[in-house]
Specification:
The structure is a single chain. This protein is of the alpha+beta class and 154 residues long. The protein is 31% helix and 30% strand. It contains 4 helices and 6 strands. The strands form 2 sheets. The chain has a 4-stranded mixed sheet with strand order 1-2-4-3. Strands 5-6 form a two-stranded antiparallel sheet. β1 and β2 (31-39) form a beta hairpin.
C-alpha cells in the first residue's frame, strides 16, 4: 500500500490528490501535519449547495488557500490545505467550490464534524470533557452552539 492510499484512508476521502506533506510545529510546540491536497478533476468546480455533479465555470482565478482541521493522529494535529476557487452557480450565484472532504462553509473535515457531533450527543458530559480540551481545541462557534444545546437536553 502506498503512502497516498494510507493518507486517503486516514483522512477518509478517496477523491483527492495529495500534492505534499509538511510536518510543522504550532505556536505552543505541538506537532502539526499539513497535507496539501486537491480534489480529483471530476470533483472540482461543483456547487456545494446543489448536490449534483454538474461542473460549473470558475467565477474568477482567485484561488483561496483554505485550511480544514482533521482528526488528530497520535497527538499530532492534522490539517488539509487546498486552493479553492469560486464558481458561478445558476441557482446560488457565486460560491466557493465544494470539496469532497468538508461540508459547505465548514473549516473542519467531515470526519471531524461528525465525530464532534457524535461525542456531544452520545457520550456523557464527564466523558466528553476529558476529550474537550485536546480534540476540540480550535472548534468553531457552530460546534460550541451544538455542544451547548445538547448539554441542555441531559
Amino acid at each position: 500500500m502506498t503512502i497516498n492510499k494510507v493518507l486517503k484512508k486516514f483522512v477518509g476521502v478517496n477523491e483527492i490528490r495529495i500534492n505534499s506533506l509538511n510536518l510543522d510545529k504550532t505556536a505552543d510546540g505541538s506537532d502539526k501535519l499539513v497535507i496539501h491536497v486537491e480534489p480529483y478533476k471530476s470533483k472540482q468546480c461543483r456547487c456545494p449547495l446543489c448536490n449534483n455533479d454538474k461542473k460549473l465555470p470558475c467565477y474568477d482565478s482567485k484561488n483561496n488557500l483554505c485550511t480544514w482541521r482533521a482528526l488528530d493522529c497520535g497527538g499530532v494535529i492534522v490539517e488539509l490545505q487546498s486552493n479553492t476557487p469560486r464558481v458561478t452557480c445558476p441557482v446560488h450565484g457565486v460560491v466557493t467550490a465544494a470539496v469532497p472532504w468538508a461540508f459547505h462553509k465548514s473549516r473542519f473535515t467531515k470526519d471531524f464534524d461528525l465525530t464532534v457531533t457524535w461525542m456531544a450527543k452520545a457520550l456523557c458530559k464527564s466523558a466528553v470533557s476529558q476529550y474537550r480540551g485536546p480534540l476540540l481545541a480550535g472548534v468553531s462557534q457552530e460546534h460550541v452552539i451544538i455542544w451547548n444545546l445538547i448539554s441542555q437536553i441531559d
